[in-house]
Amino acid sequence: MGQNQQQQSQKIITIERHVLQTQRLYPEATGRLTNLLYDLALAGKYIASKTSRAGLAQILGHTGQTNVQGEKVMKLDQLADQAIFDLIDHTGRLAVMASEEHENLIPIPEKYPCGEYVLLFDPLDGSSNIDYNVSVGTIFAIHRRKTSQGPGTMADILQPGRTMVAAGYIVYGASTMFVYSTGHGVDGFTLDPDIGEFLLTHPNIRIPEPPQYYSANQGYQSLWSPSVVAYTHWLQGIGSSNHDALSQRYVGSLVTDFHRNMLAGGVYYYPADIEHPQGKLRLLYEAAPLAFIAEQAGGLASNGHDSILDIQPEKLHQRTPLFIGNRSLVTKAEKFINN
Ligand code: AHG
Ligand code: MN
Ligand code: MN
Predict the structure, then answer these.
(1) Could you list the mean pLDDT of each consecutive 10-residue stretch along the chain, which spans 339 residues?
(2) Hey, which of 253, 255, 285, 324 would you mutate to test ligand 1's pocket, going by the most ligand atoms within 8 Å of its Cβ?
(3) So what's the pLDDT on residue 179?
(4) What pLDDT, on a 0 to 100 scale, did the predictor assign at position 1?
(5) Which is the closest atom of ligand 1 to the Cα of 126?
(6) Which of 106, 261, 304, 310 could form a Cys-Cys staple with 337, CB 3.0–4.6 A?
(7) What is the 3-state secondary structure (H, E, C) of the chain?
(8) β-pairing, 106-107 with 62-66?
(9) Distance 144 CA to ligand 1 centre (A)
(10) Residue 186 CA, ligand 3 centroid: distance in Å
């Protein structure tokens, strides 16, 4: 092999190779977390293949059911939820799971062994966009179990984000990307559909400064508090602001909005409002995993008062206001809210 060819082949780093390489840096690693990340990457490939054929396979639209949040369950929500469960339930790596689509925790079937990790997930985020061919995603958080043996319990589920051992998301967009962190920075992989592998394309992602975007559903501005409106004016370069206006971008899929801001710099916020006193987004499987990723990329996530990672959850489907992105923009939001 010529030197040039050798250099080129060395550049191809699959997700498998990357996770293994990272694991070798930590002698305490057992490999079980590594395998769990592969399982999730496989689930991502499966969901990507289904979402890209959704119109053809007649799996658009809703199931006719509503979930515990009172939201319409789309056929793809259910398919993604089932895929993640089916690909991981039997592996012996998990003690328990929890998903947006299940009111209670999801036990590991008795016929399979229980493991040391806990998986929380939003199987399909942004599902109101599914029927319109707009990017959606999957979000996941992994904790070590707190209980020592037997089936996992709610005590294993209700852990603050600080104790997370890994988190990530998958974007089903123009291309499919898998972005994850095990607490040693953030790396992004793009699915090469020809070979069916996630390849490292975005090593060591850091949220850039200066930021370019703010992302919020301004359709609800009349429901916001005066401090959130004042913060929005500040982002727009109005009033006390000492910078040019940021551009506004809002897709309505948290994963997609967050991912863009991770690469371009920006803040996403879904504040508390008159109709959603606790905000809309769920702490355990939406806000906390993305907060973990944001901090690992040099950013921050807050509910307006405290870091999202420091919140002790009380309920599985607990909601939280969320401000997430560049540290400078999130601390500014806290200042507006606490004044
Ligand atoms: P999900 O599809 O998992 O229920 O999440 C939807 C969330 C989030 O992805 C998005 O940012 C937000 O809801 C959009 O809400 P609005 O339509 O109220 O802006
Ligand atoms: Mn969601
Ligand atoms: Mn969802």
Answers:
(1) 50 88 76 91 96 75 83 88 97 97 97 97 94 95 96 98 97 96 95 95 97 98 97 92 91 98 98 96 98 98 98 98 98 96
(2) 253
(3) 98
(4) 45
(5) 2
(6) 304
(7) CCHHHHHHHHCCCEHHHHHHHHHHCCCCCCCHHHHHHHHHHHHHHHHHHHHHCCCCCCCCCEEEEECCCCCEEEHHHHHHHHHHHHHHCCCCCEEEEEECCCCCCEECCCCCCCCCEEEEEEEEECHHHHHHCCCEEEEEEEEECCCCCCCCCHHHHCCCHHHEEEEEEEEECCCEEEEEECCCCCEEEEEECCCCEEEEEECCCCCCCCCCEEECCHHHHHHCCHHHHHHHHHHCCCCCCCCCCCEECCCCCHHHHHHHHHHHCEEEEECCCCCCCCCCCEHHHHHHHHHHHHHHCCCEEECCCCEHHHCCCCCCCCECCEEEECHHHHHHHHHHHHC
(8) unpaired
(9) 28
(10) 23
* Residue 10, phi then psi, degrees to nearest 5: -65, -20
The token duo for 159 is 């852990």
Give the binding-site residues of ligand 1, using a 6 Å CB cut-off: 71, 100, 122, 125-128, 217, 252-254, 280
Domains defined for the chain, CATH in brackets: 9-202 (3.30.540.10), 213-338 (3.40.190.80)
pTM: 0.95
